Amino acid sequence: MKKFYILLFLALFLFQIPCPAKHVQNTDDTIKYLNMEWWQNYNDENLCDNLLLVYKSNYDLKNAALKVRENEQIVKMQFANELPQIGLSADLNRDLRAPMQQFGNMSIPKYSQYNYYIPISASYEVDIWGTNRLKTKSEKERLEIIRQAQRATYIALSCDFAADYFNLIKADELIKIQDELIKIQEETVLKIKDKYETGLCSVNELLEEERVLTRLKEEKNSHIKTRDMLIDTMRVYLSNSEADIKRSDYLNLKIVENLPLEYQSDIISNRPDYIQEEANIKRVGFDVRVAKREFLPKFVIFGQIGLNAYHLGTLFNSASQLFNAGILPSFDIFSGGRKLALLRLRKYEYEEALNSYQKTALQGIKEVNSALVDYKQNLKNYDESLERLKLQNKTFELVNDKREIGAASDLDVLYAKTAYLIVQKEEVSNKINTLLSTIGLYRASGGVDLCNYENI
Q: pTM score, two decimals?
């Protein structure tokens, strides 16, 4: 008979043990979140090299990876609730002076004795209703939310770094142009001073040119400040306070080509926040189903096998062996309305998740459209500035030709060169703004390689 109970007990356990959950993959392949294929479209090796350094050393990215690993362990902890629990709890005690015990008409006088109790206990909550499985699925969806938060961190950091990178190149170029403007203005001041000393111009004209010179120097100081602040910020991204920020020359920058000027609304399906909201709806949906199953009874299979003896010499005798098994059903008849309140809470959370999902979709479409409008406008402005720069260059060449034949003075040439450099500064700003708008469009689309959008 005992063998029958043992076989029944083992059969119930083997029948109810679920298959192990799929092993959670490690996050060592997170470099794909950088989407280097996209950044290579800028044809800038220094930018790509710097982004790889950010990937290796940035503390925010390291913390995001740790968050994912933490939640992977939470999933494993929840999955452990689907498995049997087995434990060993030995007990050795001695009754020094036990009181007399009475069993009907039979009495046992006071006694002293040892007791050796070594049981292996096992229990398993039979997941008839799939409650524990649903809880595990809920935690997996929470893990997906954390993974998308990690991907969002990668997209945000890479975009912020790239924007600072191009702004740094812009500052370098503007400082270079500003130096040339200052040099020209200093030469202009000297010539105006010569005119003033010969009585060919008023002192107000001289003072105005000197004021222009001071403004140009102030503007250069502002560009230097911007450059230094950008370098300090980028060093934080690189987690190195003394890093040398390698960057390309402005003339080597190229506008990303072949970007579509129209997108379908499903482009937002790759945004981390959109995927997070989808996962959150699934997670809350599982929680609602769990709350419903709380009204159903629970069944726990339990059992013990081990040794129980009062003398060490008889510890391993057959008479000292113990075994018991059973099924413990439990059902809450009255819980003060707690379960009903929990179910209503989960339903409200599900409705809230649906609303957040709809809002995120609308917000995503708005951001993509806004980024696309910004890109189109900046691209047009850049094309117009290129055309204006060509026209200003022709004007400068004409003034040079007129000076060769004596129809224009050296001051006229300096003024024409100054006008050309001012337009060149506008061209630099428009070009960098166009590059920044492509980064904004990439961010708004959720890290999609827009040059290969048709193949996604």
A: 0.84
